[in-house]
Design goal:
Rossmann fold; globular; 17 helices; 3 domains; 16% strand; seven-stranded parallel beta sheet; alpha/beta; six-stranded parallel beta sheet
């Protein structure tokens, strides 16, 4: 069934109200964050610029003071992503940034995630220039800057540090699978996807923030370089590990989060897709975390896998069948990436998936995490008891009319106190 135009407008307006009122509250920190400038030339807002986009949206570690991308010079980074204004400017190059910023940033982050192994010379020169200005370097590539002779010498000369996020821990600190995952007695939810760079981490971050703001102690286990840059306290970059240790490292990260934090729930960031022929990380994440449920992220308008134009995208339904066939778990909700889609298109996909796949479906960047919280409450009653009416009233600023609308749409949980 398709929405009629008048109904579509009503639903869009209602969802926009819900999105604004249900947003996670920003928490003030007494710890001073370090400032950071992100390099993302010609890729900001595109697939290979996912690291930069994620840091603009959320960072517990850095205050992002700017993005370098000459193709978007002068724009606001949030608006360039098609979202609200962020107050983060986009500069044409490093010189442009340093002329306009009041202080030299503490860090220079390489914010692209290309398939290529080595960066071009022009990017090397900009990194060296950033070092000369006294900026520490954060690198998420498989090419380790700290092992590059020229970079290492420049770091010593300028008294700065290079951090390679993807560098594997020393062999003595790596973990094999032990079975200790069975000691974890709180829900473990993996956010998997149908492709790379389709919003898995964004959904996991947004859900983690929402749950914590509802009084549910949620811990996010990162499995990629971007989530670790954002500040995930537990996790490892799975695609940089020797394959023998992937499952054990994921297991250890989940177990340590459980033992150290005593959480109500643990969220595990997914990587790539179980069905993707080029990557293996999702299999290790499934085996190591033994999730009690799956949230599946899917970009409905994407025709081919990103960076692989000869590989057609799988359907959400086929990915669900594959996941549930190889793991003792169930997909409990679908989340969408709205890339190349308008509001009406997203709403039609939501209605279609909920009707045909019988799974709650949403786009968390547009409509929030209400349906995901509801799905968790339905599947894990112990969480429902912790979600009170007062939590919801606080998140929606006590606006009774919004509560009524959401109840009517079955998007608010009538929790037990």
């Amino acid at each position: 069934m398709q929405f009629q135009p008048s109904t579509k407008n009503q639903v869009i307006n209602l969802e926009r109200v819900a999105r604004q009122e249900f947003k996670s509250e920003k928490k003030c920190s007494t710890v001073r964050k370090k400032t950071a400038l992100i390099y993302c030339e010609n890729q900001f807002g595109l697939v290979d610029g996912k690291t930069a986009a994620a840091l603009v949206r959320h960072s517990e570690t850095y205050i992002i003071v700017g993005v370098i991308d000459s193709s978007l010079r002068g724009k606001d980074a949030g608006e360039a992503l098609g979202e609200e204004k962020s107050g983060i400017p986009i500069f044409s190059d490093l010189d442009d940034a340093l002329r306009k910023l009041s202080n030299i940033p503490d860090f220079y982050i390489y914010g692209k995630a290309p398939l290529e192994t080595y960066i071009p010379n022009i990017e090397r020169q900009m990194i060296l220039e950033a070092m000369q200005k006294g900026m520490n370097i954060i690198n998420g590539l498989h090419q380790f800057f700290s092992e590059d002779t020229e970079f290492a010498q420049a770091a010593v000369l300028n008294g700065i540090q290079i951090t390679d996020i993807r560098k594997s821990p020393p062999l003595k600190d790596l973990h094999l699978f032990t079975g200790s995952i069975f000691e974890v007695n709180v829900p473990v939810i993996a956010v998997l996807g149908t492709d790379c760079a389709c919003g898995k981490m964004t959904t996991a971050v947004e859900l983690n923030k929402t749950l914590n703001n509802l009084g549910i102690k949620s811990v996010l286990v990162g499995t990629g370089q971007t989530s670790l840059m954002q500040g995930a306290r537990y996790g490892v970059s799975t695609d940089a590990l020797v394959s023998q240790f992937v499952v054990g490292e994921v297991e250890n990260s989940v177990v340590q989060a459980f033992k150290n934090e005593s959480p109500d729930i643990i969220l595990v960031e997914g990587q790539s897709a179980v069905s993707h022929p080029a990557f293996m990380s999702s299999h290790g994440i499934l085996k190591g975390s033994m999730p009690d449920g799956i949230i599946l992220q899917h970009p409905p308008a994407r025709k081919f896998r990103c960076d692989f134009p000869l590989l057609a995208m799988p359907s959400a339904e086929s990915e669900i069948k594959l996941i549930e066939m190889i793991a003792k778990t169930k997909v409990m909700a679908i989340t969408l990436s709205h890339e190349d889609m308008d509001d009406l298109g997203v709403l039609n996909v939501i209605e279609d998936y909920e009707k045909n796949l019988q799974l709650p479906t949403t786009d968390v960047l547009s409509y929030g995490c209400q349906k995901l919280v509801q799905a968790l409450s339905k599947n894990f009653p112990e969480l429902k008891h912790k979600i009170t009416r007062e939590n919801y009233k606080r998140l929606i600023n006590g606006k009774a009319q919004v509560v009524s609308h959401l109840k009517a749409r079955n998007e608010i949980i009538l929790a037990q106190n």
